[in-house]
TrEMBL record:
Signal peptide: none annotated. Belongs to the glutathione peroxidase family. InterPro entries: Glutathione_peroxidase, GPX_AS, GPX_CS, Thioredoxin-like_sf. GO terms for molecular function: peroxidase activity. Pfam families: GSHPx. Keywords: Oxidoreductase, Peroxidase. It comes from Methylomonas rivi. The lineage of its organism: Bacteria, Pseudomonadati, Pseudomonadota, Gammaproteobacteria, Methylococcales. Coiled coil: none annotated. This is Glutathione peroxidase.
Length: 159
């Protein structure tokens, strides 16, 4: 696979879409969780989305329950939590796995394209972020502790 555009994913409401829907946009793809110490990053992610969405930037949130069981809810609960607590307007997807034999193919691709520290491929925790260029190729991977605000300059550079 040469880009993310060959992948499909299900939105949080269950609708299946092709990621080529986002062709030509700069994307920040994030594995998220509602009960994590990094959960307040939803606010910063939404701020980035609102600031840059008119410049063809989108955040894509992929809830994941693989780390400390910190995303136990179903799609409706996750969606309600994100909207109520953080006003999330960017696309959220169905809960997925990001590691292991059942990892979503998109995250298999992202991890291979942008390995982590010491070339490790596994996602280490919730709120790992991947910046994807307008061509659908991974530009950079950010660890969970990288705040959305700390990524702002990179986003501006690639817009």
């Amino acid at each position: 696979m040469d880009s993310i555009y060959s992948f499909q994913a299900r939105l949080i409401d269950g609708e299946s879409i092709s990621l080529d829907t986002f062709k030509g946009q700069l994307l920040l793809i994030v594995n998220t969780a509602s009960r994590c110490g990094f959960t307040p990053q939803y606010q910063g992610l939404e701020s980035l989305y609102q600031t840059f969405k008119d410049q063809d930037f989108t955040v894509l949130g992929f809830p994941c329950n693989q780390f400390g069981q910190q995303e136990p809810g179903d799609g409706a609960e996750i969606s309600d939590f994100c909207a109520t607590n953080f006003g999330v307007g960017f696309p959220l997807f169905e809960k997925i796995e990001v590691n292991g034999q059942h990892a979503h193919p998109l995250f298999q691709y992202l991890k291979a394209a942008a390995p982590g520290v010491l070339s490790t491929k596994a996602v280490k925790w919730n709120f790992t972020k991947f910046l994807v260029g307008r061509d659908g190729k991974v530009i950079k991977r950010y660890p969970p502790m990288a705040t959305p605000e700390s990524i702002r300059k990179d986003i501006q550079r690639y817009l």
